[in-house]
């Protein structure tokens, strides 16, 4: 596929995700981690305007200088930014304004792509499209949070179908030795997947099946949320401060567990993989089972031998640079490196991940207390 | 005017105020004191449904039981309520949903008013309409806050014309003696205006003109915000914690003072009455002038002899019950009495007050640190 | 008594109050409102050094310039101050250091009083002694809080005897009319007791007896803390946020109510006047009884006809300036005026008030949520 | 040395550290991370009483059941605990009380050690003594914080002599390959040093000298604290929120850098190793130099070839379990494992570490924002 086609396809997918929304759904920000959907629409557009059109497209006329202030995220290099928690207070630009901005930039991009572009710019495009795919996934998280925390529990899409993973129950035994970890080859990868390097792993076993709702419910029913022994000290504070008693989106209605899905509130599907648990909970569950979570290296070494892709799988690994990691210069260099402290790595992909976006070496990362993203548990021992 | 006509007129005025809004403007809640406009639209409707239709209109079918949860405000009697600061997180019901709810209730009301209604119910109607007028005023405050805190400073209505008060500069001398304070007669008044009672006042003088922007600017330029001597202790903490340097909506752009108006950002109009100052600032300004604010009794005794009505005027009085004050039974009784601590009384009316809503005995009240409402200063000595 | 004798007597009383303390008790500050006893010892000393010795005693050598920073309280005029909540973090100056400072200043004062002093300075002395008496009362409050919030519930003084008020149960009827309020004569009073002025009062009745623990317990047992109808809106938030269920220092031990006293934890004395309730609770209790609290004017007009003096009595009045009130110039002027917002007036005196310190026109004031001071309830109707 | 002698020596060392304190210094807790010295005295005693005397010494009479509540720390297994930030509010038990408790327990221990003890109990003793040594180090941190944040900057000990490390400037080159990491042999180690296991390391270079104050000052002078590019995202928030401009205890007095030492405030010693920097600052400094921090594995593999022991050295490694790590059962098992999230590993030892307490495989850990402990920087590349 040529660049213009790729661009069109990725951009359209973002709009498709939003096609189920009401105007009002685009605007709100119930918690700091969630961004209003219209912000994602504008921010992904701002990325192409800022990093491609403004520096490289001669004669390009910026759409509105104020938009840099509104749609910048964490790129300190590029100027002042709206404090993150303020995004949900902005009624303007309106959704229509933002789509107009999007169309304006898209048109300029298509004009720009009518010319030949250098490999360096092509690389920026590929980064921009991967960036947009990451925001597509965030859109799913944020939309679910916005609708799933509304007292009316509206459906996002009554026809939404969750993908089902073909899994085999069992344990995969991996032998002690040296393994190679990290991206190889010339395909696109994020900077955090490099350098490819050797790690030494002891013997280990890793489950070929994700933990199910039924299995996790046994932990809930056994009083797992009331027994500090399974939890990290900071996790136990989190449980008590937030009165956590079950995964996010679980609701006990008349003594029956329900869960909010994109189709609305439904009885808990016991055979589904558990979803929306924090690292703290994943660890506590594993602890209660007398097992543990795999490291990201154990996961990568084994993952070609089991099914994955519907849940981001918490690992025991902290998000740290690989040997030889170095930041790219400039704003692009802020992409990943600045987050390499206090976060945990997740591996795999989720049902919200765009097709083809993830890979065996992909490193996702979040703080250990978060759970509005589509997470799950795979055990190791 | 008959009740149905009054009802129609008041209800339509609410919608007129909102006619300048974009859908997105209806949804956001930048601070806890501000409510999303769609909440006002629904809440004023909920009031008629809850206090008139449900108890008195036989066979009335509640529109949606969940709406009680969403549009209740501070009426503890009537059931659980959405935590006030959460209102801005709710994208549903949508603006269209809320207007449908409004239309549904209006139609029921018109049907109900086709019958004769008892004087007791008529009283409830009058309370409901006065309640709605109060929310009309709040709508102006909240809309101004939402648009005036947007980095794009959008106009609410480019044709908005501020009323001008015909004032005479001077001091009115009032003699020592007994004065009667509080509402008299059989017209509608709020419970907090009763009982009418005697107060003893010393000689005093009260200004016949509100403080202007030019006069207030002199205080700003004289370093009034940097000198603790003019401020209450808690006010000085407020100034320092919030780095307050001027009234709300004042912006120093390239060394020239501007102010956000309903028409957008404009250079400060020096002859206008100062607006959007807290009680703390009103007091500090008076202190700096070597004067003071009037009490609410001084204001009421003199107000028929000067012009008022474009700014709510902070008084020195705390909001307390009059002799013989008693709460009405039930939810209606929660109307005013439960706020009679820690607030200051404001007298008069503002340019946002619906015509005919206020009167000489009207007691408005707010916490002393607030200033998103349309406040001003009248001096006494 | 001459000035030196008065000085000696007042100063010694402060030290007597502290004579029951361990060194460690002098140091801690469990909440912001409580000051460490050693701070009171130093601060009252600093007052005489700062306002008398340094300006008026030729050749006086300041003890330690750093102490101004440590022992200043809220006198912005006199320089930077230690943030109030930090006082409990300072282990130095030690208790011994502070008593040395106190002795040094006392010696200088006695030397100074060997000379004739002007009436102006005598007035400063009288203010300083009244100031110290106020801190004596605060010392009792703060010591009780420090020991009463210690899990070991240590006694302050096992021999401590609470004074008992001779009261007659009944209602005093006061006729409608004009009353004179405020201090009269040339004796010392605080600036907030002036000017004496006329107020107009309606007929009212005021109880000749304080509410007892038994009576208040009936409110607790009737579910008063669970029923929002008796509470102001902000009070109800306070009850729920702080899970308030009874007066401060009440502990339900094995289903029997106990209360911490200066002698340690004891079963609740049912005949004692209720103590350690906030204004919120006083109001809620009165509301539950279908009555109200008196205003400070009602109290002052009637108080010569009933017994008072063991509890500070919450009034319905906000703490506001009397007609003609004006601040003294300079730091002394910060004494009272800057607190005249958001506080409620208490009248009378408590068992912790130094003998002779209070009077019929004395106006004490605290925020409505506080209750570590020795408060009580007198009803009116 | 026999167990009783070891016990006596370690216990006495704790008391020696405190011998320079005034009673008041034992009591305060200026921030949550700092504990009052008397708490350390009591808590280390409580450890022996709780884990040895009560379960194993027949007929032992607990000193005071309330003390369990006061001196417990984070051992959830053993019952309720005083909220950590409340420790500084407790004036009782007094310092003398705590020393009496200590003497009582010591006497019981000596009696107990008159009998033969099983190897299992001996192990508990060794753990208890190591625990006490850790608190000795914390005592130094906390005392420095308490005195170093007092506006009088009192000396802890005017004769305090900082140890000097004999270091050679240069880079040690380490070859790629498999290294063994973790404790070996039968000597005491903490559970977090096990299991010994293989890691694969790439070529690396590690400095043989710690970064000096002079070198770090160059970073400060170059505007390192004003340039976000050197900092993690969360670190940059920390710098801005806390207005961090230099290491802890640095004070710019009349344009000359001073630092608080145990001897009081002194001009910065340029040749000393930099101290009291957070991980954030260590990382930012390394970033500015175009280098990085070593991992804990790189440190352990190389540390026998350079001098260390005066500063805890931040590593790039997160504090995670080694392969095969498992918690001990019961309260002892809470020792380390529950902290294995969100913390960074430090290696080496500091001038506050008791002699013989640390070793090559010792893993210290703290949150990345903390710096009241005695930290330093060693670079790698
Ligand atoms: Fe982004
Ligand atoms: Fe309302
Ligand atoms: Fe004072
Ligand atoms: Fe410990």
TrEMBL record, chains A, B, C, D:
* Residue ranges constituting the Sulfatase-modifying factor enzyme-like domain according to the UniProt record: 169-318
Q: Which residues form the DinB-like domain?
A: 8-137
Q: In which pathway does it act?
A: Amino-acid biosynthesis; ergothioneine biosynthesis
Q: Which UniProt keywords apply?
A: Iron, Oxidoreductase
Q: Which GO terms describe its biological process?
A: ergothioneine biosynthetic process
Record-linked InterPro entries = CTDL_fold (IPR016187), DinB-like (IPR024775), EgtB (IPR017806), Sulfatase_Mod_Factor_Kinase (IPR051043), SUMF_dom (IPR005532), SUMF_sf (IPR042095)
> What's the domain of life for this entry?
Bacteria
Pfam families, sorted: DinB_2, FGE-sulfatase
Q: What is this protein called?
A: Ergothioneine biosynthesis protein EgtB
């Amino acid at each position: 596929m040529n660049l213009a086609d790729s661009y069109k396809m990725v951009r359209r997918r973002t709009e498709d995700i939003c096609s189920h929304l009401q105007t009002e759904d685009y605007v709100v920000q119930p918690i700091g981690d969630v961004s209003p959907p219209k912000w994602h629409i504008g921010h992904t557009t701002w990325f192409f305007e800022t990093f491609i059109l403004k520096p490289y497209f001669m004669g390009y006329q910026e759409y509105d200088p104020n938009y840099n202030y509104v749609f910048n995220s964490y790129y300190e290099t590029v100027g002042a930014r709206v404090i993150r928690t303020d995004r949900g207070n902005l009624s303007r630009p309106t959704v229509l304004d933002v789509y107009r901005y999007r169309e304006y930039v898209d048109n300029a991009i298509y004009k720009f792509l009518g010319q030949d572009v250098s490999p360096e710019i092509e690389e920026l495009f590929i980064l921009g499209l991967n960036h947009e795919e990451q925001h597509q996934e965030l859109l799913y998280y944020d939309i679910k949070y916005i609708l799933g925390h509304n007292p009316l529990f509206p459906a996002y899409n009554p026809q939404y179908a969750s993908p089902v993973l073909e899994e085999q129950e069992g344990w995969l035994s991996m032998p002690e030795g040296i393994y190679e970890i990290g991206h190889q080859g010339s395909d696109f990868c994020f900077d955090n997947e490099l350098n490819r390097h050797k790690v030494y792993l002891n013997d280990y076993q890793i489950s070929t099946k994700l933990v199910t709702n039924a299995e996790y419910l046994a932990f809930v029913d056994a009083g797992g949320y009331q027994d500090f022994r399974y939890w990290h000290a900071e996790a136990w504070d989190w449980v008590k401060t937030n009165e956590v008693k079950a995964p996010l989106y679980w609701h006990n209605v008349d003594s029956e567990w329900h869960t909010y899905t994109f189709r609305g509130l439904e009885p808990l599907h016991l055979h589904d993989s558990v979803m929306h648990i924090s690292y703290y909970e994943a660890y506590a569950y594993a602890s209660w089972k007398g097992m543990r979570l795999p490291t990201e290296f154990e996961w990568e070494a084994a993952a070609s031998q089991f099914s994955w892709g519907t849940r981001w799988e918490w690992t025991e690994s902290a998000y740290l640079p690989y040997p030889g990691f170095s930041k790219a210069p400039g704003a692009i260099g802020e992409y990943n490196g600045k987050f390499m402290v206090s976060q945990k790595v997740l591996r795999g992909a989720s049902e919200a991940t765009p097709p083809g976006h993830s890979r065996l070496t992909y490193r996702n990362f979040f703080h250990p207390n978060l759970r509005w993203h589509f997470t799950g548990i795979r055990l190791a021992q």
